[in-house]
Each structure stands twice: as structure tokens, then as C-alpha cells.
Design brief:
Elements lengths: L9 H8 L3 H11 L5 E2 L5 E2 L2 H15 L4 H4 L4 H8 L15 H13 L3 H14 L2 H22 L4 H20 L9 E5 L8 H12 L3 E4 L6 H11 L3 E5 L7 H13 L5 E5 L7 H6 L3 E2 L3 H15 L1
Parallel strand pairs: 3-4, 3-5, 5-6, 6-7
Antiparallel strand pairs: 1-2
Helix pairs in contact: 3-5, 6-7, 6-8, 7-9, 8-9, 8-10, 9-10, 10-14, 11-12
Length: 308
């Protein structure tokens, strides 16, 4: 078989290289690091040479180089670079930090420049690890957009543009994560009356990044539908996001109903800015509560270990 024969789909390449499908697509589109062929149904097919180059690029990134510095190098050049013979490129000290990307994203919102915002997020997703991307860029970015809107520093159309770009970005990332065989199952949503979905999306992305098989159901779902989805997916975990408002009697009623309807053995995990204001009701559902994404990650790891 010829080394340049294109035969591997992107999911296989992701497993072989240790790169996510999302990163592989970005390296192709933004940097032309590899140029896979297309099948008759327009799916990417990669060759052995493509896989070799992607693996070498990952090694270079792990050693501190940025993808922009090494993407156009040939396989032999990458081997030489990793052997230390031409390690004269600038290292990661010169790369952008999460706060730099945050400023870029905020500037793009002020300028009402959705393309600039998309490009900044894509660049950050390549340069930063997923936990850092979520906790130090996307979450602070959405919080800052909310504060700017409340102060009148930006208008509603600025917020809508930012929300539209972020929603698509997070959805694309979630859809690009490889799900291991026999992964534990989880559904993520917000209860009825909770229209703010970004917390649930971030939580879904966090869970998927840790190897959970995540079904994201969107916002504002009645208790009966959440419970039915949990039964349908045989979900080990129901992940809820509660952002606003505090003290909503409808939500209290929904949480009580969910407690009665949820499948036996299913664990509820709840977070969000308003979660603590419903602590009593959540305790009645035996829900675990988290305040930070890092706490969610720890709880999911603990649950997963307990299932093994």
C-alpha cells in the first residue's frame, strides 16, 4: 500500500495521534498543516504521511513550539527540529496568554466583528488546553459581556452577536470530541424557566472532554422531558445549569417533580450562578452542587472512578 494513499477517516486519525478532531480541522483550515483528500461523500481521508506529520506536530507543540511556527515544515524538518538540531525558533514564552485572547475577544465585540471573534476563539482553542480555554477564556468572556451589557457599555446587538458566535463555537467543539467506546452517559440541560444555556453548554463540553458520552438538550426543559431523556439514554448523570433568577417558585416545583421522576440511581449535578439559592430544593433531589467548572471536573472524575 502506498504511503500517500488516503484511507483513514478523521476519527481514526484522532485516536492514532492523540489530537482532537477539532484541532485537526483547525490545523488543516487555518494552517494547511495537512491537506487530506475527500471521499465520494466529502469526508476527510488521511494518509500515513498525514498521520506521521500530525504526530510530529503534536510533539513539537508539547515541546513548546506554536503551531504557527511549525505547521509548514516538512516531515524531515520536523524530525530534525525535534532532535534538537535546529531548535532556534521562539518558544512558548512568546505565545499569547488567556488574558490576551480575552482582550482580543472583547475588542471584537466592541467592533461588532464576528469574524475577528471567531478567529480569536479558534486560535485560542489551538494554543490553550481545553480546561484553560473553558475556565480562563470562555467563562470569563461571557461574564464580562454580561457586565458590559448591564453597565450600558455595549448594546443588546453586541451581546447577541457574541452569544451567536460562542454558541456555534461551543457546539462545534462538542460535536468534534471523540467519544470512547462504553463511555458513561450524561445529559446536560437547564430546567424549565431557565433560558440561559451557556453554562449547560460549558458543562457539557467539560464532561465530554473527560470521556463522557454527552447529550446536550438545550435550555428550558420541563422535568418530565429531562427524566424521559435520562431513561431513553440510560444516563448515569443529569447535569443542570441554573443561572437566573433566584427564588423562582416554578423552578422549585420543577426540581421537586424531577426528584420524583428521575430514574433510580441517576445522579444530578447542578451548578450556575443561582444554584446556591436553591440549595434546599437541590438537597431534596440529592443533587451534588458545584460552583466552579474545576469542581464539576472533580465530581465527574470521582463518579467515573466509582463506576469502574
Amino acid at each position: 500500500i502506498m504511503k500517500n494513499e488516503a484511507k483513514y477517516p478523521i476519527r481514526v486519525v484522532a485516536r492514532m495521534t492523540g489530537l482532537s478532531e477539532h484541532v485537526i480541522r483547525i490545523w488543516e483550515k487555518r494552517y494547511q498543516a495537512v491537506v487530506p483528500r475527500r471521499s465520494s461523500n466529502n469526508r476527510r481521508l488521511f494518509s500515513d504521511a498525514d498521520i506521521q506529520k500530525l504526530s510530529l506536530l503534536k510533539s513539537a507543540i508539547d515541546k513548546g513550539f506554536s503551531i504557527g511556527q511549525v505547521a509548514d515544515k516538512k516531515i524531515d524538518e520536523l524530525r530534525q527540529l525535534l532532535g534538537g538540531e535546529t531548535a532556534d525558533l521562539a518558544r512558548s514564552e512568546e505565545s499569547l496568554q488567556p488574558t490576551d485572547y480575552l482582550r482580543e475577544c472583547i475588542d471584537a465585540v466592541y467592533e461588532l466583528n464576528n469574524r475577528k471573534l471567531e478567529n480569536s476563539l479558534l486560535a485560542a482553542s489551538v494554543a490553550l488546553s481545553r480546561p484553560v480555554l473553558i475556565e480562563q477564556l470562555i467563562s470569563p468572556f461571557m461574564e464580562e459581556i454580561g457586565r458590559l451589557w448591564q453597565r450600558g457599555a455595549i448594546r443588546i446587538y453586541h451581546e447577541h452577536m457574541a452569544s451567536t458566535v460562542i454558541r456555534k463555537f461551543l457546539s462545534d467543539m462538542l460535536g468534534g470530541i471523540h467519544v470512547p467506546a462504553n463511555a458513561p452517559t450524561l445529559i446536560s440541560t437547564t430546567p424549565a424557566g431557565q433560558a440561559h444555556e451557556f453554562g449547560a453548554l460549558l458543562c457539557a463540553l467539560t464532561a465530554a472532554s473527560q470521556g463522557w458520552d454527552v447529550t446536550y438538550l438545550g435550555p428550558n426543559l420541563p422535568a418530565e422531558e429531562i427524566a424521559a431523556a435520562a431513561v431513553d439514554k440510560n444516563a448515569e448523570v443529569i447535569l443542570l445549569s441554573i443561572v437566573y433568577p433566584a427564588g423562582d417558585e416554578l423552578l422549585v416545583s420543577e426540581l421537586k417533580r424531577l426528584s420524583r421522576l428521575m430514574p433510580q440511581g441517576t445522579i444530578i449535578i447542578t451548578g450556575g450562578n443561582a444554584a446556591l439559592s436553591y440549595q434546599k430544593s437541590l438537597e431534596q433531589t440529592r443533587s451534588l452542587i458545584f460552583l466552579e467548572i474545576s469542581q464539576l471536573r472533580e465530581k465527574l472524575q470521582s463518579i467515573h472512578r466509582g463506576m469502574q
